[in-house]
Amino acid sequence: xxxxxxxxxxxxxxxxxxxxxxxxxLSEQTLGWKRTTTYTVLKRLCEKGIFQxxxxxxxxxxxxxxxxxxxxxxxVRETFGGSLPSFLTAFAxxxxxxxxxxxxxxxxxxxxxxGDAE
Length: 118
Known about the structure:
Blueprint lengths: L2 H13 L2 E2 H12 L3 H13 L3 E4 L2 E4 L3 H17 L3 H11 L4 H15 L5
Antiparallel strand pairs: 1-3, 2-3
Helix pairs in contact: 1-2
């Protein structure tokens, strides 16, 4: 999903369930879109299985958190061959991690290790 579609999706996630007329108004105010543009992008996102429109009401089929988790997994799979360590190595090489970030990553990793030593 591109930046514009992401901004549109955020409008839906923040306001759902939302009527199509309210979505058209918010899209016009926030994105400067015409009614036809709103319906075109909505149709595309519905076809991708992210949202649904029933009886002029739009709701999500995938939560914001789940969508971005899936996008992250796809990025790591396609860009780093699915290797999370390779992704973290590349990320840390460009951005110095703070002590707090390092500790949070350690706690996260440790939480998956508990109970696995049996």
